Amino acid sequence: MTVIVRDPGFHEPTDEDDCTVFSYFCQAHDRFYQREACGEGPHLVALHCEEHGPEGMWPQPLTLMFPEGFEPPLDKAQLSRLQAEWDAA
User: Fold this and answer.
1) DSSP state, 42?
2) How far apart are CA 41 and CA 83, in angstroms?
3) How many CB atoms within 10 Å of residue 64?
4) Preceding peptide of 67 cis, ω within 30°
5) pLDDT of residue 56
6) Is the whole model's pTM more than 0.70, yes or no?
7) Which of 16, 32, 33, 55 could cross-link 24 (Cys pair, CB 3.0–4.6 Å)?
8) Over residues 18-39, mean pLDDT
9) 2 phi and psi angles, rounded to 5 deg
10) Contacts by 27-32, CB closer than 8 A, 24 or more apart
11) Half-sphere exposure (CA, 13 Å, Cβ side) for 23?
12) What is the CA radius of gyration of the chain?
């Protein structure tokens, strides 16, 4: 499974958004993704907001700990902040 974190065509959430209903949508199979039940083969999953459709999201902290292959890559301040949060947990 590949999770899309950001895409230029996705809605970028702001503090003013009051979205409350989210799900995951498999773009490879053109249907909602629930525990690999959307179809056979590789999955291309994106966060889906009921109000805005596909939406950019922040990756999970463990994903950020290994930033190789992510575009755009984390800058040093982002990685330092994440490592400080991880160490505090």
Assistant:
1) -
2) 34
3) 19
4) no
5) 83
6) no
7) 33
8) 83
9) -115, 130
10) 27/54
11) 12
12) 15
